[in-house]
Every structure is written in structure tokens, then in C-alpha cells.
Amino acid sequence: MGLFDLFGSREERQRGALKKLAKRVTERYGPPENRQKAIQQLGDLGTPGALSTLCLRFTVRAEPGITDDEEKETALRILVDAKEAAVGPLEAFVREQESGVAWGLRALADIVPSDRLVEIVVRELARLGREYTRDPEKKLVLLTWLVEHHAGATGPEIEGALLPLLEDFSDDVRISAARAIARLAPGEAGRDALIQLLLRDRDNARVRGEVLEALAHLGADVKGHRPSVEALLVEPFFLDREGRVKKRG
Q: Can the peptide bond before residue 164 be classed as cis, meaning omega within 30 degrees of 0?
């Protein structure tokens, strides 16, 4: 009997089989052989639904860690070997899931051109910047990836995705967004948004220091805000005669 030789329509049989495989592939505490068999079955099927289900393996952490890493690497290889067939499932995974996104990005990086992956990441950051999320992990993963792998990309799309994240509830997200703006969105809007963040978070020493670092990296002037910014400067930051944020040393 084959995997889908069950009662019901073909579509119903497929959905039922994938639901069972999804449960097995995400079982943290069961025998690893069950997960590994499910991974192989999903790879053998190779359908969009099967590849989407396979991506779910990235969302859980099983013990021991070495086995977990090996299983995820196996899933990664299967997805990369599927090439274009895996792109849709991987894009959906990055869009829909909160955990394991870094693995999805790794797989996509081996399949699609870097500029296409940048578009995927920027589009998702733009969406997340408009929504409240309790856990900042996904935003941080995407921001870190964009800074490290942006392939020279700049422009209004990146700026538009990053600016709303300066108002995120998470200190870590605001800091990561400030760092990204300093490298990828060096325009006037980025400068103004960083100054506004500095003024809003004047009592948050950690955020204040990172924003000053970003402004210094940009060599940004603080025109219109010099007295307010000057009152918040701490060593090694200072303003030069033109009102640009500088860093000693």
C-alpha cells in the first residue's frame, strides 16, 4: 500500500498524510528515527505541500543538539536540491513562521539570486514594521541578515522597511534597526528618524549609545536639534563645528 492508498479523495488522502508527517517531523521528544523517516518521506514526495511541511522541521529544537542540527541540515539539503520547486514553500515559511526563519533564509540563499532574497527580506520587514509582535526574534534575524547580506542594496524600499522599526517596543529591534539604517539608508529621512529616536529614548542609555554610534557612522548633522542632542552626548561622542556627530578615537 502506498502512502496515499487510503479511503477518500486523492486531495483528502494527501492532506491527511501530510498532517501526520508534520506531526512526526516536529516531534521534539519522540525517537529521532521517526523524525528522520518523515524528513526522507517528505523529500521523496517533493510536492509543494511536502516541501512546505518539511520546512516545519526548522521550527523546533530537539535533543540532543547534534542530532537536531544534523536533521535540519538534511532538510536544508533536500530543499536546496529541489531548487525552484522549493522557493514558494520557503518564501511562505519565512512569511508565516516566527521561528527557524534563519534556516529558511539559508536555503533560499542557495537557490535564488541575492537581490531576490533581499527583496523577500525587505518585504517581510516592511510587513512586520506595521504589526505588533510579542517576540522580537524574527525581526532581529531578518535585520541581522539584511545588514550582513544586503549585497550593496539601498533605496527607498529598504528605508521604508527600516524606519518603522525604530518605533518598535523592543530595545533590541530599535537598536538593530538603527544599525541597519546607518549602513543601508543614509538619507535625510534616516537621519531625522534616528534623531527622533535619540530624543524619545533619552533616558535609555543602551539605545542612546547605539543611536549616537549610528549618527556618527553617518557623519550626520543635527541641525534644528543641536541643543537637545548636545545635552545627551556622552564620551566618546561630540559635535563638530558643523553640528555633525563625531566619535573620538
A: no
Query: Distance between alpha carbon 82 and the CA centroid of its chain, in Å?
Result: 23
Whether the link from the prior residue into 64 is cis, omega within 30° of 0, is yes
CA distance 111 to 131: 29
- CB within 8 A of 226, min separation 6: which ones? 239, 243
- In angstroms, rounded to a whole number, what is the distance separating the alpha carbons of residues 184 and 105? 19
221 backbone φψ class: left, alpha, beta (φ>0; ψ -120 to 50): beta
Is residue 62 predicted with pLDDT exceeding 90? yes
pTM metric for this prediction: 0.90
Q: Please say whether the beta carbons of 108 and 117 come within 8 A.
A: yes
pLDDT in tens, 17-51: 999 999 999 999 889 999 999 999 999 999 999 99
| Cell numbers at 195, concatenated | 534623531
What is d(CA 165, CA 58) in angstroms, rounded to the nearest whole number? 25
**Cα distance between residue 173 and residue 138, in whole Å:** 10
Place of cell 558643523: 242
Three-state DSSP state, 238: strand
